[in-house]
Amino acid sequence: MPVLDPRLIVALDYPSKKQALEFVDKVSPELCKLKVGKELFTLSGPTLIETLVSKGFDIFLDLKYHDIPNTVKRAIYAAGQLGVWMLNVHALGGYSMLLAAREGIDMVGTNRPYLIAVTLLTSHSQEDLDQLGVDQEIPEFVDRLADMAISAGLDGLVCSAQEAKPLRHRIGDGPLLVTPGIRPAGADPDDQQRTMTPEQAIADGSSYLVIGRPITQHADPAAALAAINKSILD
């Protein structure tokens, strides 16, 4: 049965527009949303977004804006006019930047995209925080960034699935929780430090799951997508 609001966001981790579109032709908007990150957007630009939107896909434009408040405000407004479904910023940009980002997304109008904030990248470990001079454990630091983003009026957070359950209790049912670092049982974790299976992530309160290489680098990407969808729907 088709999924009307698919909870899987496939990260298009391809080095070219051609390869990305070859994958997209194997799937449908009823089965997944799509994430376009820095590499593919830098190579292909807004025209790729327009192509994907024209095919009916919800697009998460994952550029993690982090700059001075006015620059972020203007960039968010510009990106919001591309017809994407979701945009993100880094919560590490600070409260003033987050408020400016919210102003930018509101300028888009009633059909504006969701705006969410990255708390801490899933590739970061406690050692990374220590090296940065952050004198907090990962859960504490994530809570601090999450509170700041939600109080600034953002629609949700990007977080590790391992933080999803405590964050869901902390922020309630309204905000979105988008969780990368999702790996099916037995899959290679690649460069992700804090991973979780799709089934457990959904059970712990994740709204949407971002999955890249276990699908995009699979010998049969469409079959891999179908299997993961089935695992979270059963």
Outline the structure in words.
The structure is a single chain. By secondary structure, this protein is of the alpha/beta class. It has a single domain, classed as TIM Barrel (Alpha-Beta Barrel). It has 11 helices and 8 strands. The chain has helices spanning 17-24, 38-44, 46-54, 69-80, 95-106, 126-132, 138-151, 161-171, 198-203, 213-216, 221-233; strands spanning 8-11, 33-36, 59-65, 86-90, 114-118, 156-158, 176-179, 208-211. The chain has an 8-stranded parallel beta barrel, surrounded by 7 helices. Strand 6, helix 8 (161-171) and strand 7 (176-179) form a beta-alpha-beta unit. Helix 4 (69-80) runs parallel beside helix 5 and helix 7 packs across helix 8. The chain is globular, with a radius of gyration of 17 Å. The model has no long low-confidence stretch (mean pLDDT 90).
